Amino acid sequence: MDIFETIKHDHRQVEELFSEIEKTKDSKKLSSLFHKIYQELNLHAKVEELTFYPSMREYEETEELLEEAEEEHNQVKILLEELQSLSPTSSEFKEKIGKLKTAVQHHVQEEEEEVFPKVRQSMSEEELDELSQEFEETKSKLQKEMAGTKK
Ligand SMILES: [Fe+2]
Ligand SMILES: [Fe+2]
Q1: How far is the CA of 41 from the centre of ligand 1 (A)?
Q2: What's the average model confidence in pLDDT over 30-53?
Q3: How far is the CA of 140 from the centre of ligand 1 (A)?
Q4: Which domains does the chain have, with CATH numbers?
Q5: What ligand has the least distance to the C-alpha of 56?
Q6: Is the pTM of this model over 0.90?
Q7: Where does residue 85 fall: left (phi above 0), alpha (psi -120 to 50 degrees), or beta otherwise?
Q8: Cα dihedral angle (88, 8, 56, 113), rounded to 10 degrees?
């Protein structure tokens, strides 16, 4: 998989979780689905911030997209923290999860339609391969760390 497919794969996975959450009324299932979204989104954002985004800083055409992308990551993180303190069956939770979904959809669309084409234009095949490897490695390293702290 190239870097774009890898990132898109993460995006589709989170979209799947959102549609599962929308279909669920059971509070235990809602909690566990939210826990998964919380982890997946934070992990994905962190890996992007450690690998993909720094590489965007190297080219003018991609650098100018960074500020907005980082701002959107922050918005998502704030919503995730706010959601964590709400009961999953409350109306506030439902409303806020809707906001989160909209924010994520907007960010994902921008990444795939605006950022990816510019990154593809700016970077060489070699750079893209390296970036893809770096992304995968960082993700599995962080996943192991997360699993380690759960005990
Ligand atoms: Fe992102
Ligand atoms: Fe992303």
Answers
A1: 9
A2: 98
A3: 18
A4: 3-144 (1.20.120.520)
A5: 1
A6: yes
A7: alpha
A8: -100
